[in-house]
């Protein structure tokens, strides 16, 4: 067992599952039209975790996730990757109030933002999240 991921944590339990069943299908992303087996999910979520650590995140830090179902693979990889790095995920839903993004970032104490850049903010303006930010 890897001491980085104690067996009583989500990441630790997942590492045990990967070690014994790495080729087992874990999830199907219908909107993106592909499957991940346990090894794929482990690889992508670990890459996200390493990216957080290399960016200076430490256990207890927070990252805001603003994604939608069309990016479900990225959502899943970022959530598990954050768990592996000990980083807390804060979610944001623009249906509450699109103008409250800055308040959510400030009030949550999140150090960063992971978002779906090409998703439209609203139908009226047709701005994407990238242009909105």
Describe this structure in words.
This protein is 41% helix and 17% strand. With 133 residues, the chain is α/β, with parallel strands linked by helices. It has one domain: Rossmann fold. The strands form two sheets. A three-stranded parallel sheet has the order 4-3-5, sandwiched between helices. Helix 2 crosses helix 3. The chain is flat, with a radius of gyration of 16 Å. The model has no long low-confidence stretch (mean pLDDT 82).
Sequence-ordered SSE layout with sheet pairings:
Elements: H1 10-21, E1 25-29, E2 34-37, H2 38-54, E3 62-66, H3 72-85, E4 88-91, H4 101-108, E5 112-115, H5 129-132
Parallel strand pairs: 3-4, 3-5
Antiparallel strand pairs: 1-2
Helix pairs in contact: 2-3
Give a quick summary of the entry.
This protein has 133 residues and is an alpha/beta fold. It is built from 5 helices and 5 strands. It has helices at residues 10-21, 38-54, 72-85, 101-108, 129-132, and strands at 25-29, 34-37, 62-66, 88-91, 112-115.
Largest sheet: 3 strands, parallel
CATH second-level architecture: 3-Layer(aba) Sandwich
Topology, number of strands: 5
- Separation of the first and last Cα atoms: 42 Å
Radius of gyration: 16 Å
Strand order of the largest sheet: 4-3-5
What would the average pLDDT be, to the nearest integer? 82
The first-level CATH class is given as: Alpha Beta
């Amino acid at each position: 067992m890897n001491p980085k991921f104690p067996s009583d944590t989500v990441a630790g339990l997942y590492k045990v599952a990967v070690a014994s069943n790495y080729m087992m299908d874990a999830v199907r992303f219908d909107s993106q039209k592909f499957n991940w087996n346990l090894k794929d999910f482990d690889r992508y979520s670990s890459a996200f975790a390493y990216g957080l650590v290399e960016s200076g995140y430490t256990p207890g830090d927070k990252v805001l996730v603003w994604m939608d179902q069309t990016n479900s693979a990225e959502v899943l990889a970022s959530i598990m990757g954050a768990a592996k790095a000990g980083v807390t995920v804060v979610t944001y839903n623009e249906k509450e109030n699109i103008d409250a993004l800055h308040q959510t970032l400030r009030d949550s104490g999140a150090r960063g933002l992971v978002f779906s850049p090409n998703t439209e903010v609203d139908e009226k303006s047709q701005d994407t999240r990238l242009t909105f930010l």
